[in-house]
Each structure stands twice: as structure tokens, then as C-alpha cells.
Write a structure and sequence with these properties.
By secondary structure, the chain is an alpha/beta fold. The protein has 13 helices and 16 strands. Helices cover 38% and strands 24% of the residues. Helix 1 packs antiparallel against helix 13 (439-459), helix 2 packs across helix 8 and helix 8 (294-313) packs across helix 13 (439-459). It is elongated, with a radius of gyration of 25 Å.
Length: 462
């Protein structure tokens, strides 16, 4: 064997030995993070307090402000390098008294159905609103009827989420424009109100709220908008086919107010080698007012807090500064995420990685990435490390609404992707409570997030 050939083999051998040692160390670290989360985790009990002791946390509400103070106090107990509140001006909308709704046919019998006002909607008149109903299958359907048929009517948007789509967020995306812009578009045709089929794949009696917008419509042209449960929508649709003259009545007392001050809550472990480079993990503090905001997004909040706790508990010293950012106002304004990104830009802060959990606390399947091909390829090289934990999904795609404003050259944006099949059963509805979150699934998600943060901290971005 020539000396040159020997040196080549020796170099290759040493390289493989070094690589194997790195992989072994990474495997040990991930195992430690999972062990601590599953055996000594705090995320589930944090969630119990957030949902049961505080409850709903709509921006501008008393619950939201209680959650801010609670999160700050809990992060301080972790003995992080710094914890602070970042002021954010947020919209305030209140639901008022519980909504009522029923429809009548030619025999005048009243059939009560479950509805709820959509977030941002104006109220009906004090005595409620009654009108004949036109059922449509989406915004594009309005033109088919035109002003002649829609003026003075109540528009009933009844296009369901597509049950044949395995990725339920795609099904949601294909239907949610009815909720978001349905009132604005129907008002242009002279409609007096809208009822929207709930964004829910399950057939049940829970109406699902969510944000809607009037765009630049003048106040006097804004019409009340409500969601109806899927069972209610099916019954109304069936009745309309049998009795086209059906009248629908509903009463809502919701109200929009002036913006109020709230806060993002931020906790930081300062980096040991590159403290001027930041990695973020987060979710949104606010929730809709009907339930307890457990899956959306209490789970993401406590998982993000747990990531920092796992770093401390495992005695891992990150190279980069790692922040948990608990955003305010994702649901009806995205003010928290926007404010955080604006302040980071003003302060010339270099963010290299951001991870969001806002898809529920279900069994983690993997992550989606808004990142360069080189960074996605790096993640694929870590697949074997995640294999023992049944994490298999690593794809390009949407990361998260709150971290979206950080997008720019050189940053990796990632979103935790749990199993999504049950998520929309609870999304924005009164049944989104602590009881529907499984402790083990929640803790597995926190460990998966901490593992990804660790790997990007150790190896950086490409």
C-alpha cells in the first residue's frame, strides 16, 4: 500500500469515526430530552393551570392579561438569563350575551340551531334579525344569484371542508374564505347578514368561531356574521330544499372596541458562543372565548416553555441565544408576531431559526420547513435520529403565522406537525378544553421541538 493510499484510508477512517461519535452524542442528547419530558415534564400541568385557572384568553380580555402575568412568572421560575414583556397594541372584540337562532317554515314552527358570532362581527339589531335564506356553496357562488336575488336576504355559506383530503389543513384552507371574507362579499350584493358552516370535519352541535373581516367596507354597510354548527347547517340545508321560503332569525350583541395594550412574553437563554444570533420557539397566548384554548394554542405555549426548561434540565449550554416567545393576538390580528419581527429588525437582531407550535398537542409526526434546499437537506440527514420517536415527516411547507413576519434570507422557519385528524373537531369551539389534550402526546411534541432546536443550535443553518 502506498503512503498516499494509506493516508487517504486513514483520513476516511478518522472522518467516519468522528461522524459516528457526533451521531452517538446527538442520539444520547435526544434520548435525554425525551426522557425528561416524558418522566419529569411540566407542560401538562402548566396547561392545566392555563386552561382551568385562567381559561379563555381573547386579545384584550381579562383572561389574556392574566395569562401574560402567569407566563412571565412561570418563565422566571426557570432561572433563565432574562424574561420580559414586549408591549403590543391589540384589537378588542367582545361577544356579549349568548347568541340565539332559529328558523321557521310555512307552519311557523321554530327549530333552534346552535350558532356563534364570528370574531370581529357587528351585532344584529337589538331585537335580532330575521330574513329569508339563500344557500350558496362559496363566495364565487354569489355572482350567480346577483343583487336581484340576494338583496335583503341572509346568505348561508355551506361549502364543507373536504373530507377526502388527508391533510386537514388543506381542507380548512379550501373552505375558510367563506368565514374570513363571506360577510364583506355578501354585503356588496345587498345581503343583510351571513351564516357560515363551521370549519369542522365532524358532524356535531358545536359552532366554531374565528376571525372575519369587512375589509374597507363603511360601517353602515357591515352586516352581522355567525357560524352555525355542522349538524345545524345540514338541517338548515335540508329544510331549505323542502321549504325555500324558510325564514332564519338570529340575535347577537357582540361589539368592537378601541385597541388596548397587551404583551408578548419572552424568555431567553443567552448563547455561549454566538449570543448575538437568535433562535426562537413559540406559540400564541391568545385564544377564542368559547372554550379554554387548550389545543389552540395552549398546547403550543406550554410546549415552547418546556423547550427552555428541557435545555436547562439536561444541562445543555446552547451556542446561540434561544428564546421562547409567547405571542399575543394571533387569532384576530397577528399583532404579536408582527410586533416581535418589527422590533427585531429595529434592533438589528440576527434570527437564524424559528419554530412554531400551533397545530394542537396531538401526537407529533414531524416538521414542515420554510427554508432553503440546503437546510432541508441537513434536516433529512437527521432523520435517523428521530426514527426511534416515530418522527418521519420532514417536508417543505408552511411554518407558522406568528413566525412568518421573521421570514428573510438566512433564516429557517419550521412548524411542528402533529397528527391533524382531530384538530378541527375542537378548533375555535367550546369543546377545546383541557380534557381533550393527551398528556403523553403533548410531552412527545415538546421533546420533538427541543430536539430540533438542539440540532440546529449545534450545527447551525446552511
Amino acid at each position: 500500500m502506498t503512503l498516499r493510499l494509506f493516508l487517504s484510508f486513514f483520513t476516511l477512517f478518522m472522518g467516519l469515526t468522528s461522524l459516528n461519535a457526533q451521531t452517538e452524542q446527538d442520539s444520547i442528547t435526544l434520548r435525554k430530552l425525551y426522557d425528561i419530558s416524558l418522566m419529569q415534564g411540566k407542560s401538562y400541568e402548566w396547561l392545566r393551570t392555563l386552561t382551568k385557572d385562567i381559561g379563555p384568553r381573547l386579545s384584550g380580555s381579562e383572561g389574556a392579561e392574566k395569562a401574560v402575568q402567569w407566563a412571565k412568572k412561570e418563565l422566571e421560575t426557570l432561572q433563565l438569563d432574562s424574561v420580559w414583556l414586549q408591549p403590543v397594541m391589540v384589537p378588542k372584540w367582545t361577544r356579549g350575551a349568548a347568541e340565539t337562532a332559529y328558523f321557521t317554515t310555512t307552519d311557523s314552527a321554530k327549530t333552534t340551531v346552535p350558532i356563534c358570532a364570528l370574531g370581529g362581527s357587528v351585532a344584529t339589531a337589538e331585537n335580532g334579525l330575521s330574513a329569508k335564506v339563500i344557500e350558496v356553496q362559496g363566495i364565487e357562488d354569489l355572482e350567480r344569484y346577483g343583487k336581484d336575488q340576494l338583496k335583503g336576504k341572509l346568505v348561508f355559506y355551506n361549502r364543507p371542508m373536504q373530507a377526502d383530503l388527508i391533510e386537514t389543513f388543506n381542507a380548512y384552507g379550501n373552505a375558510v374564505d367563506q368565514r374570513g371574507a363571506g360577510a364583506m362579499e355578501a354585503a356588496k350584493y345587498g345581503a343583510v347578514g351571513v351564516i357560515v358552516r363551521s370549519m369542522n370535519l365532524r358532524q356535531d352541535d358545536f359552532p366554531h368561531t374565528g376571525a372575519m373581516s369587512y375589509g374597507d367596507l363603511p360601517d353602515e354597510q357591515r352586516i352581522p356574521a355567525a357560524a352555525i354548527s355542522t349538524n345545524g347547517a345540514n338541517l338548515l340545508s335540508k329544510t331549505l330544499k323542502e321549504n325555500p321560503e324558510t325564514q332564519f332569525y338570529y340575535k347577537m350583541s357582540c361589539e368592537n372596541h378601541e385597541d388596548v395594550k397587551s404583551y408578548n412574553v419572552i424568555g431567553q437563554i443567552t448563547g455561549s458562543e454566538s449570543p448575538e444570533k437568535y433562535m426562537v420557539v413559540g406559540g400564541h397566548m391568545d385564544s377564542w372565548d368559547l372554550g379554554e384554548g387548550a389545543q389552540d394554542d395552549g398546547a403550543g405555549i406550554v410546549q415552547s416553555m418546556e423547550v427552555l426548561r428541557l435545555m436547562k434540565a439536561s444541562n445543555y449550554k446552547p451556542k446561540h441565544s434561544i428564546r421562547a416567545v409567547l405571542y399575543m393576538n394571533e387569532e384576530n390580528g397577528l399583532r404579536g408576531g408582527t410586533t416581535y419581527a418589527e422590533e427585531a429588525k429595529k434592533q438589528n437582531q440576527k434570527h437564524i431559526f424559528a419554530l412554531e407550535s400551533d397545530s394542537g398537542g396531538f401526537t407529533p409526526r414531524g416538521f414542515s420547513f420554510d427554508a432553503s434546499d440546503a437546510n432541508v437537506q441537513q434536516v433529512l440527514e437527521w432523520k435517523e435520529l428521530f426514527k426511534p420517536y416515530l418522527i418521519h415527516y420532514f417536508e417543505k411547507g408552511h411554518s407558522g403565522a406568528d413566525i412568518g413576519p421573521l421570514e428573510g434570507e438566512g433564516i429557517v422557519l419550521a412548524g411542528l406537525r402533529p397528527d391533524s385528524q382531530r384538530y378541527f373537531d375542537y378548533h375555535h369551539a367550546a369543546n377545546d378544553t383541557f380534557e381533550v389534550v393527551n398528556r403523553r402526546e403533548l410531552e412527545l411534541g415538546a421533546a420533538a421541538m427541543a430536539s430540533l432546536v438542539y440540532l440546529f443550535d449545534r450545527y447551525g443553518v446552511k
